[in-house]
Each structure stands twice: as structure tokens, then as C-alpha cells.
Write a structure and sequence with these properties.
The chain is an alpha/beta fold and 122 residues long. The chain has a single domain (4-119), classed as Response regulator (Rossmann fold, 3-Layer(aba) Sandwich). The chain is 43% helix and 20% strand. Strands 2-1-3-4-5 form a five-stranded parallel sheet, with helices on both faces. Helix 1 (12-24) links the parallel strand 1 and strand 2. Helix 2 packs parallel to helix 3 (61-69). The chain is globular, with a radius of gyration of 13 Å.
Length: 122
């Protein structure tokens, strides 16, 4: 059965680009474009993995990540944060919120796919 991945970004072009790449690799894709929808979709759909933009209208990706990781029902869903913020402090903040990986934009497709495979243990 195909793994289900929730892609969250307030830029529809990025969601579509990642979605096309992952669909080509036989993943099922769910899309959200803001933090509120991300939380709702994560709870309704129980994805196998979440790709989450950091900089979005509230709640931002860090808040969404932290909220899900504090909830026993969702804490085991791997989360990859994507951000244009690339300092070591930004990465550390992402890890403190519970992110499993932190990739900076622009990112290499191979890096994203490698992280997905690692986190899904494929």
C-alpha cells in the first residue's frame, strides 16, 4: 500500500512541485496550504509523513510541528521541516519543536527523497 504524505506550504507552486515528484515515486499525496489546515488534515488523514513549511501564516510550521509532537496520537508521524531560514539556530529551533529533519530551500529533490525513505524506513 502506498505511503501517505501530507505536504504543507503557503506557496501552492511548491506544494504542486513536491506533490508531482512524490506522486511519480508512487506516494499518495495530501495537500494543505496553511497551519490550520495542516493540523486538521494530519488528524483526519493520519499521514505516514509530513513535509511542513516553517514560514506560514499562524500557526506557523514550528507551532504545527510542536502541537503534533506533543499529542500521543500523532507524535510518531515523522516531520520534515522546509525553510528558507538556514542558520544553525533555525535548525536547532526546528529540532526543539520535534522535527525529524530540517531541509533548507532551495533543496535538492534527491535530498528530500532520501530523507523520506529514511524516515519511512523504505
Amino acid at each position: 500500500m502506498a505511503k501517505k504524505i501530507l505536504i504543507v506550504d503557503d506557496e501552492p507552486d511548491i506544494v504542486e512541485l513536491i506533490g508531482m515528484r512524490l506522486t511519480a515515486k508512487s506516494y499518495d499525496i495530501i495537500k494543505a496550504f496553511n497551519g490550520e489546515d495542516a493540523l486538521r488534515m494530519a488528524r483526519e488523514e493520519k499521514p505516514d509523513l509530513i513535509i511542513l513549511d516553517v514560514l506560514m501564516p499562524p500557526p506557523d510550521g514550528l507551532q504545527v510541528c510542536s502541537t503534533l509532537k506533543k499529542d500521543a496520537s500523532y507524535k510518531n508521524i515523522p516531520i520534515i521541516l522546509l525553510s528558507a531560514k538556514a542558520t544553525e539556530k533555525d535548525r536547532e529551533t526546528g529540532k526543539q519543536c520535534g522535527a525529524d529533519e530540517y531541509l533548507t530551500k532551495p533543496f535538492e529533490n534527491k535530498d528530500l527523497l532520501d530523507n523520506i525513505k529514511k524516515l519511512l524506513r523504505e
